[in-house]
């Protein structure tokens, strides 16, 4: 027994070396196969990450990465006190993926229920103010045009309340995008001057266009990853290019005053049946525009509400006209400055004057020959009398004075498409134009140019550039594009003050004195009445009536110029005179102008 067991152990010991060698062979083979598999994976990895990296990255971006615009904010337009006249607010476009518009599950009262496309469309419609059928039609139209359509608008430029209402529905195939929109918080206040943007955000008129270099923003971009269902993956946004906001345009305008001027002007224009009207308020010392009003006015929030395209711009800047008798102040100042006449110089003013050059001049009403001083000529607004004074200067001298006053040249405001008026060179004047230009015909001016003429006289003969913009305020508060406000002497101080004295006499003794009287203040002003062109080289039956002046005359601070075109119910200076009175009274009160202390001069009107 013990012998057999010993033999068995010996046989078992002899067989073990063979079994060990077989086990080692299997292990080696397994390791070899494992290395082969790893090698295959390594080769594939190198192929993907190195050899095909560029093409696969492009495919991945195309399939999962979505580019999106990051909008910069267009700058604001503000008044002199910081009141916002134009601003940008964020609106939103509600969009969807038509190809992914399918039923989805929603948890309601703890239960998962299926929401059909029709039910979802009805919910969207209720949130956006549409019908469910309209939403379904949008989906159908997009898929008809492209069976793989992945984008369509549901609603555009909605406010945040609508956006949240749609987002709260949690419909997986609806999305949103930012859509900056322009708003004008004060409606039509200075609307004609502000201008507006197109639906695509392109400046169309006014300061929006003229100051676009300051206001314009630069959009940026970002990318985000989307899942297989087209839904944005949370937290995946990467900004590629930062957006840059625009600068703020700071104007010289007082929006409260502009509102008052617009209301006053509109009331009188409607009362007299006028076609259009303008009013300008200017600082006499600085040339800054404090108010520029137009009738009819436009609300930039609703440009389509103003039917006539001509009423959407600012005629104060872009419409020139024959100024009529308000221009006589310029001729009188030129004559006095040149020293060819004094306030005591007398002329004989007939009803009709036929100078040697063949011109034919007459006054507005028949009268016998009158012995007049310059004061009398302006009080009576005599065309023949002014012609007698005007011919004391050569045509070239008068032309040079007119150019120095800014006639025939756009003002310094930089307003887009501003009219420079018409002032032909002297060698193009015919015999009638030579005299007509002495009393405001045969040339054209804008409302701003007329105001500038009176600003020059009021400011002791120094013309200040007409200023509408203080500058462009950058994000850090610095002001750029600040205009250079250096005055130019046009008249001697003596000539300007003498002209001012004459205009005070006009204010006191004009036939509209009771309609423009402002108690407590000395005022210098002149009326004007000019025929309006018929568009065919002649004159129509309509008149443009106007008043321009300044106060307090003993220390001029403010210029007001009012023009009313074709007031069919009252086509005389009695139409604009009350507007001048109301506006000037408001200006003096608003800015707390000190009442006049000294009495006005008393100049002889006859000799």
UniProtKB/TrEMBL annotation:
Start and end residues of each stretch annotated as Disordered: 1-22
GO biological process: cell wall organization
Entries under SUPFAM superfamilies matching the protein: beta-lactamase/transpeptidase-like (SSF56601), Penicillin binding protein dimerisation domain (SSF56519)
Keywords noted in UniProt: Membrane
Limits of the Penicillin-binding protein dimerisation domain: 71-232
Subcellular location, record wording: Membrane
Similarity remark: Belongs to the transpeptidase family.
Designated name of the protein: Penicillin-binding protein 2
